[in-house]
Amino acid sequence: MILAFDGSSIDGSLYSGVVRLAGRSPSWLDTLVSSWSTYGLGLFAVLLALAWWRARRTGPHAAGLALAAPVIVALAYAANTVVKLLVREDRPCRSLRAVTLEACPAPHDWSFPSNHAAIAAAAAVVLLFVSRRIGAVAVLAAVAMAASRVWVGAHYPHDVAAGALVGTLVALALVLPLRRHARAVPRRRAAVSVRPLGASRGK
């Protein structure tokens, strides 16, 4: 038997309140939120593809960062999964025996941190560096994704907050060095091209 952490003491009452609200809400709203919670990550794939398509016209460095974006998101997901396996928090639907919109996942499908929130946050951070407009849309979508995971009963609020934090930190840790490298390359090329000119004039 694997010992699991019970996160209900952190914000279980807030989670229960959201789940009760979802249970009293119109069916069309629950269907909309559930559909977004299940399929919404597909929008981030579309936004990543759109950002790459637009970045091709901006320049090779922007296009390169856009191409690296899916890899960065995948690494954020991997890091989040490692944290999941280390913490091993039971799903709130199991700890609190709540009736939720989404079917309660199987045992050992850990809750903390939220993979959906981590993926969405990582994609949003990378997209902000590629295109501010597309990134702004992705940020709003990431917030909606995190909220939807609580609404359908899959996660505590602290799960999605932690997932968003992991995704953001991993994305920044990888994007910032790439961006600095992309900015340094043109300066190095300029220095190399100026040096021979100066040398030839000296002769």
In brief:
With 203 residues, the protein is mainly alpha-helical.
Give an overview of the whole structure:
This protein is an all-alpha fold. It is 80% helix and 0% strand. The protein has helices spanning 8-24, 27-39, 41-58, 60-87, 92-95, 115-130, 132-151, 157-202. The longest helix has 46 residues, at 157-202. The radius of gyration is 22 Å and the shape is globular.
* Mean pLDDT value: 87
The helix-and-strand class reads mainly alpha
Largest sheet: none
Portion in helices? over 70%
Order of helices and strands: HHHHHHHH
Shape: globular
Rg calc: 22 Å
Number of E-state strands: 0
Number of helical segments? Answer: 8
List the uncertain runs: 185-193
Sheet-strand content, in percent, reads under 5%
Distance between the termini: 80 Å
Note the main attributes of this structure.
single chain; 80% helix; 203 residues; mainly alpha
Produce the secondary structure layout.
Blueprint: H1 8-24, H2 27-39, H3 41-58, H4 60-87, H5 92-95, H6 115-130, H7 132-151, H8 157-202
